[in-house]
Amino acid sequence: MSATNVKGPGGKKPASAATNLIAGGGAGMMEALVCHPLDTVKVRMQLSRRARAPGAKRRGFIETGVGIVKKETPLGLYKGLGAVLTGIIPKMAIRFTSYEKYKQLLANKEGEVSGRATFLGAFYPNIIENQLNESIILRGDYSGLAAGVTEAVAVVTPMEVVKIRLQAQHHSMSDPLDVPKYRNAAHALYTVVREEGVGALYRGVSLTALRQGTNQAVNFTAYTELKAVLQKLQATPETPLPAWQTSIIGLISGAMGPLSNAPIDTIKTRLQKTPAEPGETAMSRIVNISKAMFKQEGARAFYMGITPRIMRVAPGQAVTFTVYEYLKEVLEKGREMLPGNQYEE
Q1: Is residue 252 within 8 Å of 184, Cβ to Cβ?
Q2: CA dist., res. 45 & res. 37, Å (int)
Q3: Which of 67, 126, 173, 299 is the most exposed place for a label (fewest CB within 10 A)?
Q4: Alpha-carbon gap, residue 159 to 157, rounded angstroms
Q5: Any residues with CB less than 8 A from the CB of 184 and at least 6 apart, and which?
Q6: 114: pLDDT strictly greater than 80
């Protein structure tokens, strides 16, 4: 499939929803298994209180990771993995399925999707005139933005609340007498709902939607544009890119999202880690957390954990896009191998 066209190879029908669900889910599972330790280090850095004490030296990425392994064993790096696996498979399935659907909805009559939209164009529709003098929307970031918001509301926010509660615990995984408050993902989910109500699972949903929306707007736009460039350099533009090229452009596009919204992610993490105070609104909590961070730790605090986040997200997107494109190609080939060489849904 062309990077900027919603039609399949040779003008065939685009990949089915089932294909996108399976390929997206499989890609998400592989990403979680490979990259979760980096996410745990990122969360610990964002929640670190050392910077709030006068004269306390900040822990870096490697020091934080080594500290977790020493005190909590290597399994400590995988705290919250159950919550991630439970959520990331439907999350990625929703991401790719909704992204492809939004692309189809926003494509022009020839099936082309413009890649010239900016973040301003993603949030506020810009109108341009095409060669037929028909008004069309600048579509490049729309699909990624919408896919990110969709996954944030449907899956990501509850999953991250549970994941962060598990990752924030400093108990040893090898000591049976060191019993944490949250024993596993299911117990954490039950405890949060019992003590704080169902609404606690959606704490920080606005920030999560903003983070996921901007993430995927940048991610998918960069990936699509880079993929289009590489496809044009091939002898046959419709031929799928080699896996190593998909991995490289996935790595590059994946690094762009965290750089665009690091402060949002840090505030969201702190918001989701602690229960809300009675009578405190979500907006007042966001403002109070932001003020306290700036006053006690300085502007640099908003970028705490950016190194492990990029190291987590960038290779994660490389794995995700590579596995997704591979599974999608395999599934679509299987769909075409029907009696009489028919191509059907």
Answers
A1: no
A2: 13
A3: 299
A4: 5
A5: 82, 166
A6: no
